[in-house]
Structures
1.
Amino acid sequence: MKPMISVQQAEQLIAGTIRDFGTEKVSLADSLGRVLRTSIEADRDFPPFHRVAMDGIAIRWDAQRSRDHSFLVEGSQLAGAPQKSLGSPKNCLEVMTGSVCPEGADVVIRYEDVVFEEKDGQRWARITVPAKGMWQNIHQQGTDRAQGATLMESGCIIGAPEIAVAATVGQSYLSVSRLPKVAILSTGDELVPVDQQPAPYQIRMSNSHMIAASLKKWGIDAAIFHLTDDKEGLTQKIHDLLKDMDVVLITGGVSKGKTDFIPGILDELGVEKHFHRVAQRPGKPFWFGTREADGGCAVFALPGNPVSTFLCYQRYVAPWLQQCLGIAPKSAIQAILAESITFNPNLSYYLQVKLVSDTAGQLMAYPVKGKGSGDLANLLVSNAFLELPPEKKTFEAGEAFDVYRFGF
Amino acid sequence: MKPMISVQQAEQLIAGTIRDFGTEKVSLADSLGRVLRTSIEADRDFPPFHRVAMDGIAIRWDAQRSRDHSFLVEGSQLAGAPQKSLGSPKNCLEVMTGSVCPEGADVVIRYEDVVFEEKDGQRWARITVPAKGMWQNIHQQGTDRAQGATLMESGCIIGAPEIAVAATVGQSYLSVSRLPKVAILSTGDELVPVDQQPAPYQIRMSNSHMIAASLKKWGIDAAIFHLTDDKEGLTQKIHDLLKDMDVVLITGGVSKGKTDFIPGILDELGVEKHFHRVAQRPGKPFWFGTREADGGCAVFALPGNPVSTFLCYQRYVAPWLQQCLGIAPKSAIQAILAESITFNPNLSYYLQVKLVSDTAGQLMAYPVKGKGSGDLANLLVSNAFLELPPEKKTFEAGEAFDVYRFGF
């Protein structure tokens, strides 16, 4: 039997095939969750003018004398109106939040600290709490970011704040990473569609739906196919998918069984194998390869067991996909094992855990009891895999390990 | 001046208006990210039969004698094929991962531990590593979950694992929370559309796009409107929205300025005010009310400053929405302040922080330097608001505080 490679080796071999799917332009509204592929600069200063930050009156700092000093009100400066000027440095203008600070003024005193009085048919503003300094309650032009400053870099994931900033600088269309064309092919004679009643020896398909749902995180609408364990049919279908797709995810058919045709078929079809079998549980029979022809295609052939499929997707496929999309690899997150665990086989063990952030700000990983890799229902009560390295058999409560999160 | 309410009071008043928007049926593929509103039970045992977990041979435990014991191979049990029986308890069947364990067998020995030999025209399987116990490499029927067991409860968010389990139990359509009809109305004469060049005293709209993007997390496609500070136009539009919508989110026009018509209009239109002004920074002028007529409508009128809008959405609107959708309120997550901070006003202060999970599994909150509530660009480099309570002025590095995350 050939020696298996480690999870670190598998990770490196996969990382060696990272490729760029190109870019496309999408509207601002459609850019949510996509990966920016250009830098975005400030087209104006942030803020673009001395912006009034409180409703009140604008005065000149060196005109203010003391508490109860009164200023003649010349008028109002509304938000969205062209900038006015103080007629006399001794007077004031009422100003509204979001308006331009009037020319000649450099302090805003909020309404709460002003009393308005009528004298001789004129309106006066008497200050009850004097300003403490120049530019009080004024958000000065350019203090957050200068015109031309880089606000977002290529590779950032576009969330709500990014959309707000892109809107502010007038980017109605954004250049983002093109999404790859992905096919999911499930195999196995034991599988029936979701809406069908399985015979006692059959089960319903679930892997393809699970992976398709996971891919939607990146906006990818995968095409789903199922084929039975018929070598000729599988060969024809995979041949077509390799030509049309950027990524083919196959579940099942990669182990040592009589109908595990996938590795042989991929070899026949000219897919270069990078590895088969990884020293891990679950997911040992994982196969990975690439084909250069027809624009290139990466093939992840995952073990058919649902938890194995999901682990391999989360641990290997998702990070690869992220980097192909232009997202910088994240440094590993660690969590603290909450209960001691023993695991004897000389394999990396992906323990299903429930991550809980405790009141002291620590990320605790509680093992979810289960029957090993087959226990699909346990994925419902866990939200991460904790990676326990093969060098040890006993893992003590309180130790920190790398963790791979999933779930909302 | 009226006393302001605390953030805890605001939270409670909002929580008092939580309502149910009802349910709807959606296809399994469309259910991703939605909230389940029924419990899902196992229609069969998990696994539904004694499932072979490794490719190899199935034997009877009490037939195994020792290392090098040979079994006559009667045939093969493939995945997806009806269950076979061992003809003789002394023989074996080859079995494939995912197949039913043959009747009469209770142990599977994996191919790695078997050598096949031809003798007298018959095929024999010689064991090189004997089984260690009954049911080895067999995932026994019902060991994960029993038929009838509740797998998912009403209120869970449907992610990839939930989709896999729903598929497994044959749920092609799921009952989920109906999404509310939401309108976002931005106000302010200073705002121009994203694709327009602003005059020196104008800025482009960003709040409505930011909130619309945030609502998409729940699958909500909000309708976006903008109106200038014209009382009559605003009144007519808000009147219509109150009738048609479940939730109206307004940005701007809630402060003390001359054109801050929103609180007055909402009062005129019969929206019951629950509070106006909260002792917090940013977001002090936050207004909240509800209207019972026409099926009910909740109105969140948020301050127009982008960071104020975003904080109020994340801190108040999103948790309310989650609970309306049937998601149990989450217990607060805490993070550890990484640098000491001083904040003098007697207000709850929402500090923009960058959360980083350190190698010891601690969630650290690094303050992002900024000019206060106006600094929209700082949202790009932060991913959470840390809630610093009003009772103190100085917050020491190492202290833990509640944190409100946003971002991917």
Note: DSSP finds six helices and 28 strands in chain B.
2.
Amino acid sequence: MPTFQVTQLRLAKGLIDFGVGQPDPALLPLTALRQAATHRLAKDDPSLLAYGAEQGNEYFRIALAEFLTKNYGTPVEPGELFVTPGVSQGLDLVCTLFSQPGDTILVEEPTYFLALRIFADHQLKVIGLPTDDQGLIIEALEEKLAEVKPAFLYTIPTFHNPAAVTLPASRRQQLVQLSQQHGFLIVADEVYHLLAFSGRPPAPLSRYVETGTVLSLGSFSKILAPGLRLGWIQAGPMIVDRLVHSGLLDSGGGLNPFTSAIVRSVIELGLQQEHLKQLKVVYQQRASTLARLLRQHLAEAASFREPSGGFFIWLDLHDGIDAAALLPLARQHKVSFQPGVSFSSSQGLGNYARLCFAYYDSPQLEEGVNRLARALSEYL
Amino acid sequence: MPTFQVTQLRLAKGLIDFGVGQPDPALLPLTALRQAATHRLAKDDPSLLAYGAEQGNEYFRIALAEFLTKNYGTPVEPGELFVTPGVSQGLDLVCTLFSQPGDTILVEEPTYFLALRIFADHQLKVIGLPTDDQGLIIEALEEKLAEVKPAFLYTIPTFHNPAAVTLPASRRQQLVQLSQQHGFLIVADEVYHLLAFSGRPPAPLSRYVETGTVLSLGSFSKILAPGLRLGWIQAGPMIVDRLVHSGLLDSGGGLNPFTSAIVRSVIELGLQQEHLKQLKVVYQQRASTLARLLRQHLAEAASFREPSGGFFIWLDLHDGIDAAALLPLARQHKVSFQPGVSFSSSQGLGNYARLCFAYYDSPQLEEGVNRLARALSEYL
């Protein structure tokens, strides 16, 4: 039987690619979706097949708001939620509606490399702001704001991709204050927020949506399944209103009525909560396994922060090791990663590498780190 | 039980709104979707939950290409198809990638009013070209091309929305020749093409995608269910390549893997062909009913072309009747429509009104026309 391309991933045979930022296919909840689809489609209600409400099906938003309220630990109102077909399309819509080609936007250095691609398609001028082990440095932002008026600031406040840092509550407050003083929008990519291994991170930036300068992007891609193309924007009434009354929504209606109706059942049947619980256990194990292996085999060549949630470890390579130069050698050893330079808006971060622990199980993580260690010892 | 907003439509109680351009909820194929979802999700393949191939799942594109080849009567290759979440989002992506704010684009006068909204969000300068009862007047386009270089021309060649006209084969050829001579893109909205009441319209503009200047938008919204948010772009390799390598696709992967996997089963089980056949019978009946009623009750006040496919009748109101002025009176009589001015890029077409025959059954069509006749007699 010939095989055809059905997923985004095209991994070379035998390659262990720590660069993949996707859930392990073995963790995709096919049974839950089967159960939810049966539950939803058994009802005699064809409304999920009609053009949907622009803001998203209201029953779905009620279920989602309840789920978020419980898991964020801060109240989320259904009226603050706008349903999207995932964060990438949400971000694309935000660029269309809240920026113009040529506008300046601010991002963290490092930042999510594929967001940079979306900004490039919208011809935005991207300025990277320095970060430390607590995320965005607020003083650096303040200095930059004296020079430029950005259309928006794109930030990943919790379990940062790639840096795995989390912005403390105090910096979140300062950030929101600055957005109000200087009149710019904060576009917070909060897709890893729900993936804390234990306890709760500082409240998401979404708790500040009432200020009108914060827009929070959420998604089912990391907590349920990316193939659903289902996410949300949480924002205050003026921003929700602009989204709902965009030309795109006026024409096509709600952005994912059929899938959101099925995911409503996933939530209402308790399957989302159950799956999230399971994911946290698995990801915590994988993160601690990868961290342990890196300490054992790469301690001299690299250091990193122990992750407390999310998908990634951000390796700081020592002794002038250049990740992009290491990559071809690593690939000869059938292991790969994302070199730091991809996450830079100014061609920097050459001595960093992003490793994802979510995609592989322990034996594969071990084999991958062994290969990486061999590649490194050849490189040095 | 409180009712929450679940669909795009908010019809006032008792109102018959000929302005609605949507399928009748009674015609939404819930049973087919139930059957297809069960069929697809019973398989032990979680790939539909992973990030999908950027161009769209290849098995789905093979099934769709076969369906289109049969129903268009012209060959369609899976490699020419790029899966979208519906025409509105396809059009939005086309604007982002193939135009810049301030660019001029050409449309027909009249044109699809909600496309105008999407163009406005992208800050495009829209110029309307005159049409006759065979659609776009090619000589007028040629004259305009001597003055302006458009980013693209947006056209609805078959069963035009709202004008219900179809561009003959000879004009299609001339149009494509002009796009090659002048180097502009034709963005063909072909969503009504498959809804011919009998026989086949001239081959879709998609047959010219090999030229590289034609991009054809298709959708399941009119032939299956709009709530699926599933459509496609058919185009030549260079355009498909640009779409596949956009930032949006790089980040989020394929645009609707879960739903397209289920619709693949709809096609493979023969349910799409069956549903399309049924829709054509119903829409033909409704179109001929509405046309008969209009001839009976409005013959003196308006004229129109008998539709041979699609969703709409385009009323040409006589004696200086202004549709926008008639509208409040009509609404008092609990009937509504889309006034012609909505479809104009230059505030013209005041004496036209678009009536949709797809949404209502015969008794409702009859009641609606009676009310419209009463409103008109009061207006005159």
Note: Chain A has a mean pLDDT of 95.
